[in-house]
Amino acid sequence: MSTVHFAGVSKRFGTVDALADLDLDIAAGEFVSLLGPSGSGKSTTLNLLAGLLHADEGEIRIGERIVNDVSPDRRDIAMVFQSYALYPHMTVFENIAFPLKARRRRAGRAEIEERVTRVAGILGVEQLLHRYPKELSGGQQQRVALGRAMVRDPKVFLLDEPLSNLDARLRIRMRRDLKALHERIGSTIVYVTHDQAEAMSMSSRIAVFDKGRLQQFGTPQEIYHRPANLFVANFVGEREVLFLEADAELEDNRLLIRTNGGLLTVEDVPPSFGAVDGRRAVLGIRPEAVRLVAAGSAGAMPAMVSEVEPSGPDLVVFATVEAGIDLSCRVDGGMDVARGERVALALVPERLLAFDPATGAALPLGG
Description:
The mean pLDDT is 89. The chain has helices at residues 42-50, 92-102, 109-123, 138-150, 168-185, 196-202, 220-225, 230-235; strands spanning 4-13, 16-26, 31-35, 57-62, 65-66, 77-80, 156-160, 188-193, 205-210, 213-218, 242-251, 254-258, 263-266, 279-285, 290-293, 301-311, 314-321, 326-332, 342-347, 353-355. Helix 2 (92-102) packs parallel to helix 4. The longest helix has 18 residues, at 168-185. It has two domains: 4-227, Rossmann fold (3-Layer(aba) Sandwich); 242-355, CATH 2.40.50.140. The relative contact order is 0.11. It is an alpha+beta fold.
């Protein structure tokens, strides 16, 4: 395993900045996901690291070695692609063994046998070594593709949306398997995905990209609970965030949020909410920042239920408060809540987000 270092790296295609001034340090043994929408720069970053693209500016290091002018085959990396790219005329054993046979210093038969068997055992495909790719399921083919990368013992694994061709249930299973595999082998993994669930569930840290620029690099918890800006807040999360531009004011331990439609109140806010006191701010409200409460309780806002959406074990309740603002919250799936019902909602201060309306940068409500 090895560190990965980008310093001031940029890549342009004509007049388009595919990647702009990237600074990124990945520690040895980390599982880092590059996350973002199409055209955000994540795949460009991976291809630059792989040597499939050449940087226009900046420096790329793998370990202590600058690799800007090093060919892909000499960077000691292994890639796993969205299409598994297995050789259909080769058995599973031969597919996994191929990188060892293709090296300039070809491994001996006994070494190849030992390494292929060891990797197949780790991946649970040891009973499939005699089969051909067409005889395997999608998940099994993915494991073989991983085995072909692992058998080389590279310094860095590069995975480019490797689960996107699998069905939803198998993707969830493979996420668990990939995370367990990383914990077992301890290698440095750089993983490209547009699927935030993949990034959140597997990664040590996540690099979020948009329009060729790194927006935030942090743990899944930091990315979700303390997004750096409006883009990260809205991109990461199962549901869109409700953003309200409003005037905020602290009154004792209560936050008053004045919008064009009316007034929202938040009870029992901590002193750190002074960051928004007396200023215009964009408040971000996720469903978990709203809870169903008893009418008349502290901070309760009367509301009318407009829609109820089953979501697995939960219900997502959409309701409009008297200020004319549509809020949503999650409740237990066993609750009896119906459209047109009158309820009361309260905002949870610890779950609120706030941003500067001019720059989009986060305001530190958490202290």
